[in-house]
Amino acid sequence: MQLAAAMYFQRRTQAISAAALAALLFCTQPAAAADCAPGTLNWMAGRWQEASNPQGSREQWSVAPGGVLMGSGWSFPPDGKGGFSELMTVRPQGQRLKMVLRHFDVALSRAREEREAPMEFLATDCSTHRAVFEGSGAGAGERLTYEATPAGLEITGDFLQQGKAVQVKWHMIRSAD
Question: What are the C-alpha distances in Å from 168 to residues 45, 96, 128, 155, 156?
Fold first, then answer.
């Protein structure tokens, strides 16, 4: 009887230990991406213009069905030369949100990215005022951060250009038009 009781308690202890280990492993998985669900980033919606170049740089985000964000933007340097436009989407992919974007020349005749290789970023950290997107595929190592501030929308791009780290910041304010 004592042997049976001892074996019962040993099995029970092992089962409890296994359950505790599984709970610990489950709870230590990155929870930030779980916060990145459709609708979480609706605070990005709106019409934005760059504070330092309000007539030359704009970005707009709209909420589409299913919590998908559709975005577009354009930018012309203050000297009026060059410029580009971009199309963007943030949509669910499995259990995560994925941002896909493409840049075009102002005539929309040439894409900056290859036809089958848009820029892709996975949301890794989302809150009611901040979203971090980590580059995937060819963009691994790059990052886009959107942050709502009292002054507007701060966008930081950490990119790799020809193997060198380049950071670009945009200080966006709500557009009056």
Answer: 21, 25, 23, 8, 6
